[in-house]
Amino acid sequence: MFILLATLAIIQPAIPKDPGAWIGPDDYPKSSMRKNEFGVVGFAILVRPDGNPEKCEVIVPTRFEDLNQYSCRLLMRRARFKPAVGPDGKPAYGIYRSATSWFMADDLVRVKELIKRYPYPSAIDLTLLTKGTKTPAPIELVVSIDTTGAVTQCGTPEATVSGNIVEVACKGVKAAWTPFLGSTKAGQAVMTVQSVKVGFEAEAAAPLNR
């Protein structure tokens, strides 16, 4: 079941195929090893309707530009996807966001220390304040974004989430989340389907008057 708001078609994000095989330890560039370059590279890939990457953009860079651009070059060669599905039910452009890490160490303890110091980007894209004693669990939304950046469709594949929570989350996304605008390498603006992770926090209680 797919919970949607005021729509008939079921939109779906681009789904990665075997992402664990895209970048591995053997890909660490020797030049970066010599210069002790490391860190976490957050990236966004514009996925074409045929499932191939159109372009890759670094959205959370390391301090080392060569390592940032090398990550995207590898992803452009290796990343493949099941295409997104647009509001018309046909394959569409999608935006896939994730991160990859580059760390060198002689032992696992040191690697864990580096990962803790240079963490992956947060999986939560937007945090909404809620009232009440029970805070909803984070949910993943799937949205369609037109060429102006407006959310035209919003829903969730999580069948156990109540419609009220989905409605609140979608309203919050439309009001406060900044989507990635899709444009091809040639500069043509395109409609995209994207995933958005929404978290919730309890609103602080008002101080008591004395």
UniProtKB/TrEMBL annotation:
Pfam families: TonB_C. It comes from the Bacteria. GO terms for biological process: transmembrane transport. Residues 27-92 form the TonB C-terminal domain. This is TonB C-terminal domain-containing protein. It comes from Sphingomonas xinjiangensis.
